[in-house]
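Aim 2 progress update. The chain analyzed this quarter is reproduced below.
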Amino acid sequence: MGMTWARRRSTGLVLCALTLAFGSSQGAGAQEPPELAVKAAFLYKFGPFVSWPAASFDSPSSPFSLCIVGDDPFGPMLDGAVANQRVGGRPIVVRRMAKADRKAPCQILYAGGSPPNVKDTLQAVAGSPVLTVTDWPAPPGIVAFVMDQGRVRFRLDDQAAADNGLVISSKLLDLAVSVTARKIPGAAP
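Predicted structure tokens:
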């Protein structure tokens, strides 16, 4: 069954927003590989398309935290990309950590480094209301960046999002190159 006009328009608007994010961040990281600028923009642009449980934030005035655990390929490029940006009315802060901490206030967590370190990071926050992001082919987080015909794209694991208490917007699911679907309660395995 085809998409309705409203859904195509909505999906188109999301794609435009993500494309604009790439364009606006490209100049800031002109000396960096272009895919890093795109990934940096994607990281914070995922925020408006995910719903977190209210208990994910310490208080109504808590910032929206984007955490980098392990290797940080973005450096100041990410700080520049999120400057003056907000998610759900909350200012975005970037936190860099050597190891994942289940108690750290992270809404989005990028896990970098070797596959064993990425796996350890993902296990440390499993079941927490955190949108995990990795680079393929390392162990995939909820979001896994992939290169597709020279472009940065992403895969989504909607079941892993559900396991972490998150809801991903259908608009974002439509943009993924692949989606691991959320299990329907009561359905046979």
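The first strand starts at residue 50 and ends at 51. Residues 108 and 131 are 5 Å apart (CA to CA). These observations will guide the mutagenesis experiments scheduled for the next reporting period.
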